[in-house]
Amino acid sequence: MSGADNNTTPTRKRNNMMLGLVLAAFVTLVFSITIAKMMAGQNMEATDHVRRPALEISE
């Protein structure tokens, strides 16, 4: 091993830890938004290509 390899190991480890923290924060954010949207429950209607009279404009 050369001296350069010994110096890059802690830097690489720190970068990997930061990347892991950013990824965990993103997953937590997506999970939180999903839970917040699901709290409304019945107000959500999925787009599942089924005709729904409640969504049609009545004249």
Strand segment count: 0
Low-confidence stretches: none
Order of helices and strands: H
Distance between the termini: 79 Å
- Beta content comes to under 5%
What is the molecular shape?
Answer: rod-shaped
| Structure classification | mainly alpha
Number of helices: 1
Report on the biggest sheet: none
What percentage of residues falls in helices of 4 or more residues? 55-70%
The whole-angstrom Rg is 24 Å
Mean pLDDT: 81
What does this structure look like?
With 59 residues, the chain is mainly alpha-helical. The longest helix is centred in the middle third of the chain and has 36 residues, at 3-38. The protein has one helix at 3-38. The chain has a domain at 1-34. 61% of the residues lie in helices and 0% in strands. The N and C termini lie far apart (79 Å). The chain contains one helix and no strands.
Layout of secondary structure:
Elements: H1 3-38
Quick summary of this structure?
The chain is mainly alpha-helical. The protein has one helix spanning 3-38.
